[in-house]
Design brief:
six-stranded mixed beta sheet; alpha/beta; binds fe (ii) ion
Length: 291
């Protein structure tokens, strides 16, 4: 099973890039299941039903989130109606929505997805390390392949989660910092790991937002209104191959593409519809993909 995980989608620029680029990316790599973090998809803050529906329509199988999940108030009504939209599982009991979901690929193979959130420099909610084990146990009988989105600020907490879950899940991928890290690897017991998937949105920005107001907050300490930036949108994420029988990861590759590069993939796919990047190529050092 080849799975694509997409880093935080930022507002309209991120959604537009997803609309144009997801299909070429899926076709080029032969992706069979898509997960995306949508916590910033509505103007940089939260998600709405219309936007969630549109993202699913584009081919995203499961949506994860994080600390921005409640920024748009309608999420409180929306999330109980949409099992494919997750919020961190370690919010206290009684919070609307769910933190895990077992979905199916197009050909009916189950994929479990769990969303948890870190506590270092973040909200002091329930222990993600305990909660994630409980969630894994609850879905173990239904899914061998399990992906964990660990939405966290601190690199140390994310790496700790990787080792905590090595051999228990297929992929531990971090989100929230909006900056892709270069530490993708497969841990000794078969769990693929990446500290942060990065963001799908404008990279000429301060983590997705217009530079001037974000910089002003550092310069003068006064409140300023943040809007998503527009310049240099890139789609960030990670692709893994998983063994269907064992749930172990076989290969991992980071991806970071501009619109132009995604369109190049589309042209490449059109030349040979059945061409798929071989599994071995996924393990090569990350870099630009040849069409
Ligand atoms: Fe985010
Ligand atoms: Fe976040």
């Amino acid at each position: 099973m080849r799975i694509l995980f997409i880093g935080d989608i930022i507002g309209r620029p991120g959604r537009e890039l997803l609309r144009k680029g997801l299909q070429p990316l899926v076709e080029h790599f032969g992706v069979e299941f898509v997960i995306a973090n949508v916590e910033n998809s509505a103007a940089g803050f939260g998600v709405t039903k219309d936007i969630g529906d549109a993202i699913v329509e584009l081919g995203v199988d499961v949506m994860t989130s994080g600390n921005h999940i409640w920024d748009k108030k309608e999420a409180i009504e929306y999330i109980p109606t949409e099992p494919r939209l997750l919020r961190p599982a370690n919010y206290p009991a009684g919070v609307p929505g769910r933190g895990s979901y077992v979905a199916q690929s197009g050909d009916g193979r189950p994929v479990g997805v769990i969303n948890v959130m870190g506590r270092v420099f973040m909200l002091n909610i329930d222990d993600p390390f305990q909660v994630v084990l409980r969630e894994i146990e609850a879905m173990r009988a239904r899914a061998r392949i399990i992906v964990v989105d660990f939405h966290a600020e601190a690199t140390s907490e994310k790496i700790a989660m990787g080792w905590h879950l090595d051999g228990k899940v297929t992929l531990v991928v971090g989100t929230h910092t909006h900056v892709q890290t270069a530490d993708e690897r497969i841990l000794p017991n078969g769990t693929a790991y990446l500290t942060d998937a990065g963001m799908t949105g404008p990279h000429d920005s301060i983590i997705g937002m217009e530079k001037e107001p974000a910089l002003a907050r550092f310069l003068n300490g006064m409140p300023s209104r943040f809007e998503p930036a527009t310049g240099n949108p890139r789609l960030n994420g990670v692709i893994i191959d998983a063994d269907d029988k064992t749930g172990r990861a076989i290969a991992i590759r980071r991806v970071s593409f501009s619109e132009q590069e995604l369109m190049g993939l589309a042209a490449g796919a059109a030349r040979d519809l059945h061409a798929r990047t071989p599994v071995s190529a996924l393990s090569e050092p990350a870099g630009r993909v040849e069409g």
